[in-house]
Write a structure and sequence with these properties.
Rossmann fold; transmembrane; SGNH_hydro_sf; alpha/beta; SGNH_hydro; five-stranded parallel β-sheet; 244 residues; Lipolytic protein G-D-S-L family; transmembrane helix; single chain
Length: 244
């Protein structure tokens, strides 16, 4: 009886062992499925590079006569105002009108239009551009008026710079005195002195084209009133030297 009982116990024990092993296999398999498998793929890092802001160039308005407008230069890029603006890194707004002055107005022969206002009357147009720099140049077209009424010319010069400073308190103002293709006379010196004084009152930088005379005889055109590219270059160099 004992031997028979032992033979029956062996199969039962084997079945129990098989069941345990099967359960263990299923448990290990379930654990493997439940555990996240690290990805072997490498995500590329996204690098965001800040866009560098391009520095804004200062805006420079040029007011004046035919010299500012560029009469005599072979191309607009060769006029003295454009040469100065280019070398100083300014965006030029050229409001030059031939034949005009602080009191002098002009017409078709001077500026090419039916009527062109004086420099003083152009202040509003300059202010409307919200410039960083304003360059006012000229005065030679006021020489005749100065002989007749020097006080009127002096007042117009002063008013021009006073208005610019009041309406553009943060702008850089540059006053370029008159030029002459002839010998420097008393009238030219007087108008130049008025420009120098007006500039000092409002804290503007002043540039003389008469000390010494920037215009060499060889640069004067046949009309006797304007200069060629070399003359424009000479004026530009004078201004650049005085206005760092």
């Amino acid at each position: 009886m004992r031997r028979g009982g032992r033979r029956r116990a062996a199969p039962v024990l084997g079945l129990l062992l098989l069941a345990v092993l099967t359960g263990l296999v299923w448990y290990l398999a379930w654990q493997r499925l439940a555990t996240p498998v690290p990805s072997t793929r490498t995500r590329s890092a996204v690098v965001v590079t800040p866009t560098a802001e391009v520095p804004q160039r200062p805006t420079a308005v040029f007011l004046g006569d035919s010299y500012v407008q560029g009469r005599g230069a072979s191309a607009p890029s060769s006029r003295w105002s454009s040469l100065v603006a280019g070398e100083r890194g300014w965006d030029e707004v050229n409001l030059g009108l031939g034949g005009t002055g602080y009191v002098a107005t002009s017409g078709p022969e001077g500026c090419g239009l039916d009527f062109c206002p004086s420099v003083e009357a152009q202040v509003a147009a300059a202010v409307a551009r919200a410039p960083d720099v304003v360059v006012v140049a000229g005065g030679q077209n006021d020489f005749t008026s100065y002989q007749d009424d020097p006080e009127a010319v002096d007042a117009a010069i002063a008013a021009t710079f006073e208005q610019l400073r009041r309406q553009l308190p943060g702008a850089r103002l540059i006053a370029v005195g008159p030029s002459t293709t002839r010998a420097v006379g008393a009238v030219a010196e007087a108008v130049d002195a008025d420009v120098r004084t007006a500039a000092a009152v409002v804290g503007a930088q002043y540039v003389s084209l008469l000390e010494p005379n920037v215009i060499a005889p060889g640069t004067v055109l046949p009309d006797g009133a304007h200069v060629d590219d070399a003359g424009h270059r000479a004026i530009a160099d004078r201004v650049l030297a005085a206005v760092p």
